Amino acid sequence: MPLKRGSRPPCSGSRRVQVEDRLTFARVETRLLDEDCAQAERVTVVLDNLSAHQPAAFYERF
Questions:
Q1: For 25, which of 7, 15, 51, 52 could close a Cys bridge (C-beta 3.0–4.6 Å)?
Q2: How far apart are CA 29 and CA 62, in angstroms?
Q3: pTM for this structure?
Q4: Contact (CB, 8 A) for 10 and 37
């Protein structure tokens, strides 16, 4: 079953939704920081009830 991930930069008036076969938390966060918030001095990420809360989610990817 494909998994849906979404992000919405504040005050952008838009959102990005991705459908993936696997959990790709680190890839989504990297894209969020590199593309959507590249000029930001600080980014606050709010997570919801997924295994992405674990630091290992980044280590598995990179």
A1: 52
A2: 12
A3: 0.45
A4: no
